[in-house]
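ARCHIVE CARD
CATEGORY: sequence design from structure
SOURCE FIELD: tokenized fold
FIELD CONTENT:
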């Protein structure tokens, strides 16, 4: 489909002919290739909730080796912008935080709905519940000696399910006592091989009989649907996929009030769509992958309408060991899937794929430890200037060029001002480029706001060094006195610290020639020393408060 290829190439840079589509209507999409914090295979990539730490974008978590690396800070966004459309692999990008697993390889992870906790499954069979901010391990569950391949949180945020190589789906409770860390509150047995993926379906509709369903996909070619609320006959249905199931996905029905969501399963090179309650397979699609599908996500394709409205069509993306990304259409009424477009992304095998909630970023993990991030471009035809154009620029000259005349023949009359605004003495000095006189006049007003305003203007004009130089004892004393008095004020400290540095550089070689100046420099040094001591004390108090709050939260969770 040419239109589909054009969309994914221009919006996400998924294609080899990216430059031919971009210049006219769209800003450049951003791509980033970087090496994970470990040389091991990238087992899982996932996005946390965007509300975590008030971040605008969802934090990225990379599960590789004996750690989970979290990328949430501005350094990651800056690297994404600076490395625009370059396929060079960055090896110097460091994560904001690393959650370690004690030396055992991490195989899977899942964020809680609030983003504060993250569940990690290891190859040793341990399920770690860690704090995403402090990186502390709050709880450890022991599932045996078999590796844990998948984890998923329940809606209440206090329970989590896990599945692994032993073929048992377990449900854990964070409120359990210390003696129950090796015993799950629920064990669902039935698979004869390793569980590769699992989901939790908790419908919000109160009219349905099932409130808490678990869906597990295994290497034994089957998908099992469990009712975790029943005491007996927990397995509701067994679905035969025909290949080892690698990925599961739930998609809402067109009539969610009366119908359950569609269940999509991916295994081998086949995608199947199921009705999870009746067990009926409504669609079987043999994809154009040449090797096993490893991950599957749903994304929205935004279409710009002619009337200015946007329509959205859902797409199903699959990635496999062949390094291909296949894009399929999705019909939420009939559950039909059709192939539309395919892209050869890398020569390596793609082991994991994830997309954030706003469909703004798409990330891939490979078996060589390389992480690929694709960021959606924005339409430049709909962007509007958010701030007024600065005087002297071309945008200021062309402002209002495309604005139509006011309807109704409204005339705007500009009245001439009778009186001109009287300028202060330091404003007149700045107009005449007398920087030293402007600073002296501002100091004579004894108004710190005026002095700081003049210092900021001098800094913008690169005249601060000129204003501070060539001063004798009488003219230097007011500048030093003002700096000593206001350098500890938070609203002025960032500016006056630079002023103090320049004063030390200019007049450091004349120390000892004037007692007054030497005394002021000593006061400046003592003032800075006291402020540093106060800041250290405050940091100690903040650390103690954080420890107290963390202990209180842990106590509340245990209760």
């Amino acid at each position: 489909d040419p239109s589909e290829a054009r969309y994914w190439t221009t919006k996400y840079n998924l294609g080899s002919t990216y430059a031919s589509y971009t210049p006219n209507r769209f800003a450049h999409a951003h791509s980033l290739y970087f090496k994970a914090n470990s040389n091991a295979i990238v087992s899982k990539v996932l996005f946390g909730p965007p509300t975590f730490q008030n971040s605008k974008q969802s934090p990225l978590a990379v599960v590789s080796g004996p750690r989970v690396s979290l990328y949430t800070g501005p350094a990651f966004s800056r690297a994404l912008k600076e490395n625009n459309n370059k396929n060079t692999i960055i090896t110097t990008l460091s994560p904001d935080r690393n959650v370690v697993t004690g030396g055992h390889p991490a195989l899977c992870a899942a964020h809680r709905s609030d983003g504060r906790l993250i569940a990690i499954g290891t190859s040793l069979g341990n399920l770690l519940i860690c704090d995403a901010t402090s990186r502390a391990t709050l709880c450890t569950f022991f599932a045996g000696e078999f590796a844990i391949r998948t984890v998923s949180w329940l809606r209440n945020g206090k329970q989590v399910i896990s599945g692994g190589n032993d073929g048992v789906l377990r449900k854990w409770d964070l409120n359990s006592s210390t003696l129950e860390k090796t015993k799950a509150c629920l064990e669902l047995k039935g698979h004869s091989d390793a569980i590769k993926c699992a989901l939790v379906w908790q419908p919000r509709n109160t009219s349905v009989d099932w409130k808490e369903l678990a869906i597990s996909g295994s290497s034994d070619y089957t998908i099992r649907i469990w009712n975790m609320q029943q005491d007996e006959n927990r397995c509701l249905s067994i679905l035969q996929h025909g290949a080892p199931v690698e990925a599961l996905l739930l998609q809402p029905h067109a009539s969610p009030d009366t119908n359950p969501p569609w269940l999509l399963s991916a295994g081998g090179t086949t995608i199947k769509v199921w009705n999870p309650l009746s067990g009926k397979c409504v669609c079987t699609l043999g994809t154009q992958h040449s090797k096993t599908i490893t991950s599957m996500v749903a994304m929205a394709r935004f279409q710009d309408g002619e009337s200015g409205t946007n329509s959205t069509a859902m797409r199903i993306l699959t990635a496999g060991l062949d390094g291909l990304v296949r894009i399929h259409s999705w019909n939420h009424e009939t559950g039909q899937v059709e192939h539309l477009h395919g892209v050869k992304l890398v020569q390596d095998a793609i082991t994991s794929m994830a997309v954030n909630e706003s469909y703004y970023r798409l990330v891939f993990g490979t078996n060589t430890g390389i992480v690929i991030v694709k960021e959606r471009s924005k339409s430049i035809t709909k962007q509007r200037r958010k701030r007024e154009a600065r005087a002297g620029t071309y945008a200021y000259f062309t402002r209002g060029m495309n604005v139509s005349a006011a309807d109704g023949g409204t005339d705007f009359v500009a009245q001439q001002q009778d009186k001109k605004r009287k300028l202060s003495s330091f404003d007149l000095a700045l107009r005449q480029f007398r920087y030293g006189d402007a600073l002296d006049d501002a100091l004579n007003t004894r108004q710190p706001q005026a002095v700081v305003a003049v210092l900021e203007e001098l800094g913008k004009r690169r005249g601060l060094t000129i204003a501070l130089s060539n001063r004798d004892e009488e003219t230097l004393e007011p500048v030093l006195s003002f700096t000593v008095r206001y350098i500890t004020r938070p609203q002025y400290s960032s500016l006056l610290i630079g002023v103090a540095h320049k004063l030390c550089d200019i007049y450091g070689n004349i120390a000892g020639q004037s007692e007054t100046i030497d005394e002021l420099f000593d006061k400046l040094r003592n003032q800075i020393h006291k402020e540093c001591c106060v800041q250290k004390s405050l940091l100690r108090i903040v650390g103690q408060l954080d420890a107290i709050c963390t202990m209180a939260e842990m106590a509340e969770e245990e209760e």
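CARD ANNOTATION: The radius of gyration is 31 Å. Residues 444 and 478 are 9 Å apart (CA to CA).
SHELF: design records, drawer C
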